[in-house]
Amino acid sequence: MKALLRTGAGAFAYLAAATGLADESAVIDSGDTAWMLTSTALVLFMTIPGLSLFYAGMVRAKNALSVMMQCFTITCLVTVIWALYGYSLAFGTDMGSFIGDISTKAFMSGVSTASLQGTIPETVFATFQLTFAIITPALIVGAFAERMKFSALLWFIGLWVTLVYAPIAHWVWGGGWLGSLGVLDFAGGTVVHINAGIAGLVAALVVGKRRGFPQTPMKPSNLVLTLVGAGMLWVGWFGFNAGSELAADGTAGMAMLVTQVATASAALTWMFSEWWKHGKPSALGLASGAVAGLVAITPASGFVGPMGALVIGVASGFLCYLAVVKVKVALGYDDSLDAFGVHGIGGIVGAILTGVFVDAGLGGAGLEDGVTILQQVGLQALGVVVTIVYCGVVSFVILKVVDALIGLRVGAESEEEGLDLALHDEKGYNLT
After folding, report:
1. CA quadruple 54, 55, 60, 63: dihedral sign
2. What is the pLDDT of residues 101-124, one digit of tens each?
3. Is residue 432 part of a domain?
4. Which residues contact 278 (CB under 8 A, 6 or more apart)?
């Protein structure tokens, strides 16, 4: 039972229900349910409006509306997919430790006011997990912002959620093989952030660079919006991490505390690194550092203590900063809004360091009996590598298929005009 509790938000609730251990005697806990209703709203708030504003402020003015449109539409598209079959693929009856039986929960079959997952209604659990399925592909938007066709985006996201997100969510949280091996991912380091970061990197490479990159300056249109969006993400992340306990208890409280500590330390680390290098701290750097810390603490939030969170925050702030200002420049790829540099690298840092700071001697919740730090780090590394390979390969295939069928990229004239007008015949800013 201890191992099941440590595989993440979905696994224990799913496995308990699937094996008949919970529902016969379980009753709804009003406190847990109230907290999970709140957490669900907070995580949805992270995408619309949080991520939408964060991204809108970072792109050029002529594309601000388009990225908000993409995030909003992804929210709608993934919701429909989740209700039809996505929830069943991720959390239906396990099939070979790889995927859920599509018929188990298809069309939300059996999800009623009477069905429970642990001490909360299954309706709440399914909606909470839906909000994770929404924000993950929305994060990818940052990698190819300002140049992908809207129609291609819809096809790519629909296929990606089906073929990449749902299987990996099942592996870790739905009774699949990674969770069963003991890979720790409390709230989505692998499932959400490494997944989104790798898909973003692959998409940026396949779609290609923006016209004029990197010679032409492509300054953010409105950093005030970016800071507002970052603040919304920070607040919403408490639902993301503390909510993943699926209960209002001490673990949820610790998850909230370590989320705050890691975020603050990462933001300061990025800010001071940039200040030392360039002579001035920037608002964009501070916001990016905060998101890097939020990303890195996500897999660790239910397992580590405050001092472990502090180290994770410092490590993620510095390493994500290097990925954005050094690695991206050296390799020359155009990850427009640093989806890989922040979410991919931050997710990897957090996933690996979870295996270290879960140790009770370092303030964590404690390793399983007979498992050493080195062994747990090895398991974490396995989860990271598997996610990178599977996501990378399948994302590449999806992108190539969509490109062959309808084309991924807008034309040169449309890109120059801006996607707001070219694709939507509207403007994010009407200043004249």
Report:
1. negative
2. 998 999 999 999 999 999 999 999
3. no
4. none
